[in-house]
Amino acid sequence: MAGSFGIFRQYEKAALAGLAIMAMLAFFVLPPILQMGPGSGGSDPVAVSWKGGGLRESGLQRAVIMRRAANQFLVESLAATGRTPSRMPLPDDEKDVVNTLLLAKEAEAAGIVVSNETINKFLQGWTNDLVRPGQFEEIIARIGGRVGLGQQDVFEALRSVLLADRMRELLLRGVDFSGTPPGWLWDYYRRLEQSATVELIPVVVEKFRDEVPEPSEAALRGFFDRYKEDLPVARSSEPGFRQPHRARYSFLVAKADTFVEQEKPKVTDEQIKEFYEDRKVALYKVKPADAAAGLEEKDAGSKEPAKEPAGSSPAAAEKASDATPEVKPEAKPAPKDGAATGGLRVRPAAFRQPASAAADAPKEAAAGSEPAGPKAAAAEGTEGTPPAKAEPATDEFEPLDKVKDDIRARLAAIASERRVSNIFDAVKADVAKYGESLALWQVAGDGAGPAPVAPDVGKIAEQQGLVGGASELVNRSEAFATPGIGGSFELTMSREMGMRQQRWVDMLFDRSSPMLRPVATRDIEGNRYLSWKTEDQQQFVPSFPSAREDVLRAWRIVEARPLALKAAEAIVAEAKSSGKTLEELAAARGGIEVSKVGPFTWLDRGTAPFGSAPELSQPDGLAMPGEEFMRAVFGLEPGQVAVAFNEPKTVCYVIRVAGLEPAEAQLKELFLAAARDPRRLVAAAEEDATAVFSRWMESVERRHEVAWKREPRGSDAE
User: Fold this and answer.
1) CB 159 within 8 Å of CB 114
2) DSSP per residue, 321-370
3) CA 425/CA 433 separation, integer angstroms
4) Rounded Cα distance, 649 and 558, in Å
5) Mean pLDDT calculated for residue range 119-139
6) Considering only CA atoms, which of 586, 599, 601, 594 is closest in space to residue 659?
7) Tens digits of residue pLDDT in 641-662
8) What is the pLDDT of residue 339?
C-alpha cells in the first residue's frame, strides 16, 4: 500500500494535470455529446415507425435535409426573380416531414400522380416564368454541393410536397366556402365586421378561494398526480405542475447610437475624402438631368399607356407565386422520356425547356440593335414592348460637401462595429478562462481554495460604455418577452442551408447549448448583445411536498369557479328582474367595479396582411378573453345581460351589451353586397379548417400506426 502512495506522490503533478484535462473535457465536450440523444454514436436506431415502414435516425435526418434543400431551392429561385419570401415556404420540422410522406402515400393510394410536367408548371408559376432552366440547374448545383444532393433529390422532395398538398386540397375543398350554407357565411361576416361596446363586472375567481373547504391530503395528492406531467400554459383552464426548462444568463449590450456618436468625432477629413473617392461611383453617382427630362417628356406626350410585360405587376407576381398546380391522376402508360413517377431522367425532366432552342442560343447583334441579355430574356413573349433604352453614361457625382455627413456616419458605424467586436472578443476570452478555472476548481474539490470569480458584467459595462446585467431563472416565453435581447438574432452559416438567421432565444434554450459559451447577437435596430448561460434547469416534475402550496392554490381556484359563477349569475338575475343597469346595481351593492370596454370585433386582423387568418380580438381592459366570452357578447342584443368566463377561467364576467355597430339590418345589407367576394370570409374560417385538417391528420396517423420512438424535433432540433 505504501508503495502505491509513493508512486502517486512521485507523479503527483502529472496525474493532477491529466485529471484537470479530463475534467475540462467532461465540462465542455461531454454534455453536448450526451444531449445529442440516440443515434448520435455508431448505432442508428429507429426514430419513427408506421405500418409497413419507418425511418431510422439517419433516414429521418436525410429527409429533413432534403426538405431544407427544397426550401432553399424555392427561396433562391424566387430571389432570382427579384422577390424574396418573408419566411421559408415549407415547414422543416421532423413531424411535418413525416406527415408529408404519409400524405403522399395517401395521395398515391387514391390514384393521384404528380408528373414532372406538373412540377415544371409549379416552378413556372412560382417564379412567374422569369427563371430559365440554366438558372435552376445552377441553383441546385450550388445547394447540392453543400449537402450532397442532386437534381433528382430536389425534384423528389418537391414531388412529395405537391402530392401531400393535393391531398390536403381534396380534404379542405369541402371546408371552404364554395357551397357553404349562408348561415355560416353570415356568422363569419358578423365576427369580422360588427363591433360591440360592453359594460362589465369582473368576478375574480380567486376571491372565493377561502370559501372552498380544505381538501384531504389524499385528494390533493391525486390532483397533483393528475396534472404533474403537464406544463403550465398561461391561457389554459387546466393547471400544470411540471416545471418548464429555465435558464439564467449574463449579458452585455452595446447601444448602436451611443457607439456611432462616439466614433463620429474621430473620423478625419482625409478618411472622408478617401472613402468618397473609393465609393463615389457606387454610392454618389448623379443621374443625367437631360435623360430624366427626356423620359418625362416621353411620358407626358404618350397618348396611351405603355403595355406592362406579362407577369411583371406585383399583383400578377403574387398570383403566380401562390398558384397551386393542377394535379390530375394519370391512368395512361408512362411515356418513354421518363415523365412518369417511377423512372426519372434528370436532364429532360428537370426543368421546363423553352419552346424553341433558339431562345437559349446566343443572338448575334444586328446593326443598330442591342445584344440580347438577361433583360431581353426576361421580356421574351411581351409583344409590342420595345427593349429598355440604356441610360447614358455619366461622370457627374454628388459634391463631397453635400455627402460629407453621410460618409462620416458610415465610417463611424464601421468603426463602431470594429470597436464592439474587439470588446466582445476580450469578454469571450475572459469567460472562457473563467470556465476553465471553474472546471479545475470543481475537480480539485474542497482543498482547492475559494471558487474562481466570474466576470463582473457591471464593471465591464461601466468601463466599456455598455449596459450589463444578469437575469433570473426564466423560461422560454419570459426570455423571448425580454425587451431588446429577447428578439435578437445571429446570422449563422449552416452546411445544409448556407447563411440563415437564428434567434437568440432558440440558442439559449437549445439542448446542445453548453454553459458559459458566449453568444453574440443583434437586433433590428443595430444594437449588439453578448450573453452566456450561467445556469440551466431542464424540465422536471417536482415532488409533491415541494409543490404542495402551488397544488393547493390551483385546487382552490378550480373548486372556486362554481362559486364565482353563482355570484355572477345572481347579479344577472337581479339586473333582469329590476331592469337596472350594471352601474346602478354596483352603486347599490357597493364595492363592485364596473368598466366599459369597446368597441371591438370578435375577430381582428390587426397588422396581418390581406388574406391571412384573423385572430381573436384582445381588447384593452379584458383579461385573456376567449371564444366563450366572444360567443356570449355577440349572442346578446343591446341591453341584454349574460355571464361568461375568460379563457383561463380566472375571471367570470357579468356582461351587458351597450351597443352593436352597425345594427343588424344595416349589417345584412353590407353582407349581401360583400357576398360576391368571399375571400375575407375564407380567411376567417381558416382556423376551423385547420382544426378539421388536424383531426383528419390524427386519423391518418392512427390508421398508419405511426409511433415516434422519441419526441419529434422542431426546425431548430431542440
Assistant:
1) yes
2) HTPPPP-----SPPPTTS-SSS---HHHHHSPPPS-GGGTSPPPPPTTSP
3) 12
4) 9
5) 83
6) 599
7) 999 999 999 999 999 999 999 8
8) 35
Decide if pLDDT at 604 tops 80.
yes
Q: Check whether 312 has a pLDDT greater than 50.
A: no
- Residue 182 CB burial class (10 angstroms; 0-12, 13-18, ≥19): exposed
Give the whole-angstrom CA distance, residue 518 versus residue 535: 13
Reduced to 3 states (helix: H, G, I; strand: E, B; else coil), residue 599 is strand
pLDDT: is 341 or 567 the higher one? 567
**Are 685 and 21 within 8 A, CB to CB?**
no
What is the three-class DSSP state of 542? coil
Q: Nearest CA to 653 among 619, 687, 615? A: 619
Q: Enter the C-alpha cell of residue 397.
A: 457625382
The Cα 316–Cα 30 span in angstroms is 54
Kindly state the helix (H) or strand (E) to which residue 643 belongs, with its residue range. strand 641-645
3-47 pLDDT, tens per residue? Answer: 444 444 555 555 555 555 554 544 444 444 444 444 444 467 888
Residue 285 in 3-state DSSP? strand
Residue 599 CA: distances (Å) to CA of 173, 553, 701: 35, 35, 44
Question: With left for phi above 0 and alpha for psi between -120 and 50, is residue 386 left, alpha or beta?
Answer: beta
Q: What is the mean pLDDT of residues 282-301?
A: 56
The answer to which of 109-118, 626-635, 678-687 has the lowest mean pLDDT is 678-687
| Per-residue CA distances from 1 to 6, 8, 16, 494 (Å) | 9, 11, 20, 55
- Rounded to whole angstroms, the Cα distance separating 136 from 123 reads 10
Question: Can you give the C-alpha Rg of the chain in angstroms?
Answer: 33
pTM, entire model = 0.56
Q: Which residues contact 273 (CB under 8 A, 6 or more apart)?
A: 400
Dist CA 198 CA 195 (whole Å): 10
CA distance 206 to 479: 28
**Dihedral angle at the C-alpha atoms of 503, 506, 508, 509, nearest 10 degrees?**
170
Alpha carbon dihedral 226, 228, 231, 237, in 10-degree steps, equals 40
Spatial distance between the Cα atoms of 385 and 375, rounded to a whole number of angstroms: 12
Kindly report which listed range (158-167, 327-336, 418-427, 523-532) carries the lowest average pLDDT score: 327-336
Q: Report d(CA 166, CA 66) in Å as an integer.
A: 20
Read off φ and ψ for residue 248, nearest 5 degrees: -120, 140
Work out the angle between the directed axes of helices 133-147 and 151-172 (0-180°, nearest 10).
100
Residue 616 or residue 534, greater confidence: 534
